[in-house]
Structure formats: C-alpha cells, structure tokens
Amino acid sequence: MGKMTNWEELLWRGLVKDVAGEGIEDKINNESVTFYWGTDPTADSLHLGHYSSLVTAKRLMKMGHKPILLCGGATGRIGDPRPTSEREIISIDEVNNNIKAIRKQIDDLFEGKAQLVDNYDWFKDFNFLDFLRDIGKYINVNYMLAKDIISRRLETGITYAEFSYTLMQGYDFLHMYQDMNCIMQVEGSDQWGNITTGIELIKKILGKEAYGFTMPLILDSTGKKFGKSEGNALWLDKDKTSSYELYQYLINTEDSMVEHYLKVFTFLEPDEITELVKQHNEAPHLRMAQKKLAECIITDIRGKEEYEKAVKISEALFGGDLTGLSAEDIIMAAKQVPSIKLSGEAKLIDLLVDNQICSSKREAREMLESNAISLNNEKHTDENEVITKDLAIDGKVMIIRKGKKKQFIGIYE
Questions:
Q1: Which of 14, 70, 271, 380 is deepest in the core (most CB within 10 A)?
Q2: pTM of the full structure
Q3: Please, are residues 210 and 184 in contact by the beta-carbon 8 Å criterion?
Q4: Selection from 126, 187, 198 nearest residue 165 by Cα
C-alpha cells in the first residue's frame, strides 16, 4: 500500500462523514491547524464511545495538528438535546466534580500535550442581554428549527434551554476562533448541527471561514453503539469498568467488525492492519486481530501494566497460571463473573450444589467424574473432599470452574 496523505488516511480509516469548509483537505495535509473536540461532563468518567472521537483527535495531533479539548462546564449545566427526552439537570457540585475527573482522563490520554479548556470560563460573565444582542441576533429561528438535533424533538417538545444549546456551542467555536486561533471543530456525527452553527457565527460576525468534520457513529454488527455491554457503558475509569471487562468486550469483537475497529481505534500503520487482517482471516479461531485490538486500546487508555494484568486474569479464569494475582486483583477484575459467598468448610459436592454451580448431586458427581471441576485451576474429583478457605487465594478468593466456559468467583466472608 503506497504512502497516503493525512486526509486519505482519515478516509481509509472511515473517520470522515460530514465536511465543512473549502480546502479542508489541504489544511489537514499541509498545515498545522488548531482544532477542538468537546464533551459535556454528564458523568464522572468518559466511556469507550467518547474514546472513538478522542482517538481521532489524538491521531490528528500525531499528524502535527494542535488539539484543544473542551469540557463543557457551561453547556453541561444545560444539556445537549437527546433524541427523545430532556436530559436531567445535574447539580453544580456534580458538574464540577465530573469536570475534574474528565479533564484528568483527557490529560492522561494525551500525555499532557493537549490544551484543556472549560467553556464556563468565558460564559460565566456573559450576561443574558449581551448574549441575545451579540449572538442571538445572528442566527435565524428557522435555521435552528431545521437542525436535526432540534427538529426531531419538536413533536415531543423541547425546552428553551435545550433549544438554546446550539447557540452556546456555536459561540464556543467563535470564542476559540478569536482567542485561540482554533479554526476547525471535529466531533461525532450527532454534533453536525452544532458545528455548522459555529461556522455560521464565525462567517457572519468575523467574515472568516472555519472548518469542521464529523466522524460516523461507531456501531457493532447489530447496530448497537460501540462500548455498550449488557446495556451499560464501558468506562475509561478502571474503578468503574475493569481492564478485564474491557479485554473481554474487545476480545469478543465480531470477525466482521474487527478490521473496521482496528482502523478506527489503533495507531497501527495501514500496511500493518492489512497484514494482520490477512493473518486473522487465515486462522480466525486464534483471534489475532481481536487480541491486537484489545492490546492497543487498553494500553493507550490504561497503560501496558493494566493490559498485561487483564490478559493474565483472563487466562487465569480460563485455566492459566494464577501466580502473582491477588484476591483484590481477581475481585476487581472479574465483575462479569458470577460471585458466590463462601464460609467455613463444606464437602465439595455440597459446595457445588448449595451454590447452584451444579443443579443436583447427580450432575455434580458426573462433573467430578469427568474431571470437569477445578478450584483455582487445579482439578478436584473427590466429592467428599472438605473445602476450606486454606485453598483460597489470600484466604479470600477461589476461582471455581465447571467445564471449559463456566466460571464462578467464590469469596470467603
């Protein structure tokens, strides 16, 4: 594969949906431009859905462009209109706590090389009358009603606060264009209407051209948003989502999607991805592409040590070496694995039946006789063996495995 331009690589990776601004391709290829990406502090952590945009911002930084990453202390008090209903207003204290946590995550991800801003800094002294006069007069209501993010809510109803959101985000772009030489905005495709409002304000008030492009929404093969597992977001904060959970989600990526995800989420060169996909297609059961995807994402978000721990715990739960793993490592990591409470001592057959690992003593005996029961990855076959916490890791945790695929975490009280 020949050497691509920056813009060609973005297109090859499937990272461009909507584009605004004449000559944006030349800007991306031949200049060093300041651009911004923003998010509102609706939680105390970002999730993998945000990461799909952040990794594009990081890619642009590696291409020589200068990122400004905005966490919306002002817009977060209002809430970006959702497709179906108004967002719940969160307290100011919660907004501030969320900003603090998110800004640290972003700073860590960009290794301190990106400028971090909070739009509350320029909105806090902007009074209502001045905003209407200086900003509101330049945007026609009909123009706002035509925005997809607003029009889809007209039947169910939209508050004035949410209706005004696009003006606030548009002003963010205008302010950063003037004060920070930020000429481009890069967001997910749901922000297209807000990007173009900012471009319109810059054109009408400053008489200058601004640029922007959106990235397609990243979905799995069923149409579900990437980074949603069992109805829950997969968080960048390791205390909310363990590295083991991230690893399991990524390692189970469908074969039909893994090439797309490698293009979007990794910094592997195009030739590396092409070769890896070729090897994967020749032996898909080895899951080489999924393993590389997991390695790239977890290492970028959490560091190499967390990735290696996730691999080790995954292997341990499926029969590998437990050396070096603590009870806390296993408990924190394996939130998806069913846990059972253990106490005192019990015969092995009773432990299996009483904790519903086996449905009956008959099934338990069949499992034991066929070598299908292991405790901390060691086979146990004697139904009358007395099991105590002495067998547990740190006297606290026991990995109980039934067959090849069913694991349970036994925790001693």
A1: 70
A2: 0.83
A3: yes
A4: 198
Compute the 3-state secondary structure of the chain and give helix, strand, coil in percent, each to the nearest 5: 50, 15, 35
Q: Provide the CATH topology of domain 339-412.
A: 3.10.290
Beta bridge partners of residue 35, listed in sequence order: 67, 184
Task: Give the pairing of strands 228-229 and 232-233.
Answer: antiparallel
**Domain ranges, ordered by start, for the chain:** 6-215, 228-317, 339-412
pLDDT digits (tens, 9 = 90+) for 274-313: 999 999 999 999 999 999 999 999 999 999 999 998 898 8
303 phi-psi bin (left φ>0, alpha ψ -120 to 50, beta other): left
**By three-state DSSP, how is residue 119 classified?**
coil
Helices (H) and strands (E) in the chain, counts: 19, 15
Query: Binning pLDDT at 50, 70 and 90, where does residue 334 land?
Result: low
The CATH fold of domain 228-317: Tyrosyl-Transfer RNA Synthetase (1.10.240)
Model confidence pLDDT, tens digit, residues 40-75: 898 899 999 899 899 999 999 999 999 999 999 998
